[in-house]
Automatic annotation (TrEMBL):
Pfam families: CSN8_PSD8_EIF3K. Residues 1-45 are annotated as: Disordered. This is CSN8/PSMD8/EIF3K domain-containing protein. Residues 18-37 have a biased composition (Basic and acidic residues). Residues 96-225 form the CSN8/PSMD8/EIF3K domain. Residues 1-11 have a biased composition (Pro residues).
Length: 261
């Protein structure tokens, strides 16, 4: 009996993606080179997490983040190795950040299955959570911007998840900036505009707009003053020899103040 010709290797983008996806689901894609080509956010079959995602989406859009956490924690771990688990973990981690609980956000990110941790989106989520937990103010804004840009990439196959991530990250940054502004107002009797830019993640002109009506600006010294500030115990040393020294001093004082809240 004459055998037919051998099956040709996959050549199209769809065929290659299918082959990678099958390898990941079989647990056979372990080499770093293969991990770099992570599967897209969507998976071909419905499971627990895909069925739960519409409810998570609606709760998050309604900004009922306590309920997002409760509902997500209730149904998690039913299929922990599923690549679609990120449909639950990503909104859960971002909800914890919005609720100002970065420690639980870190624990949520740690639950991601191995085959999802190397996706650029989930990797950036981990960096965002770590920055928020470590009080790395400037890095928080940078990773948030990267995460939002990743949702616009073609590999973000789940449009609802991409839209939800954009909304949640935007809200988190708004709340994080507002909290930081409050901390700066409480901690310092004055702060250089360049330092305010770093801590608020704003451009040269934006800090002045953001503080208009709440802070006074001295154009001669390029310094911002919160109104009616009498506490000088944490006053910033504007004559310090190094901007890095100033930055470290501000960071230390903010962390101390935030720990006491």
């Amino acid at each position: 009996m004459t055998q037919g010709p051998p099956t040709p290797p996959p050549t199209s983008t769809t065929e290659i993606q299918d082959q990678v996806r099958d390898a990941v689901l079989d647990g056979s894609s372990d080499r770093p080179a293969e991990r770099a080509h992570s599967p897209p956010l969507s998976v071909p079959t419905m499971d627990t997490y895909q069925q739960a995602f519409p409810n998570i989406y609606e709760l998050a859009i309604q900004r009922d983040f306590s309920e997002v956490v409760r509902y997500s924690e209730t149904i998690d771990l039913k299929n922990p190795r599923s690549p679609s688990r990120l449909l639950l973990i990503v909104p859960l981690a971002l909800s914890y950040l919005i609720l100002d609980n970065p420690t639980l956000a870190q624990l949520a990110v740690a639950r991601l299955p191995e085959n999802s941790r190397f996706h650029p989106l989930t990797r950036t989520l981990g960096n965002l959570v770590a920055s928020a937990s470590g009080h790395q103010y400037a890095q928080v804004y940078a990773h948030a911007e990267i995460m939002c840009s990743l949702t616009q990439q073609p590999e973000s196959a789940n449009d609802d998840l991409a839209n939800l991530i954009t909304n949640l990250v935007t809200l988190f940054v708004e709340l994080f900036r507002r909290k930081t502004f409050t901390l700066l107002s409480r901690a310092f009797s004055s702060i250089e505009t360049t330092q305010a830019q770093i801590y608020l993640g704003l451009s040269r002109e934006q800090p002045l707009t953001a503080t208009s009506g709440a802070w006074q600006y001295d154009s001669t010294s390029d310094v911002l003053y919160p109104p009616g500030k009498n506490n000088t115990s944490l006053r910033m040393n504007l004559s310090a020899p190094s901007c890095l020294d100033i930055f470290d001093s501000v960071a230390g004082d903010l962390i101390k103040l935030e720990s006491g809240l």
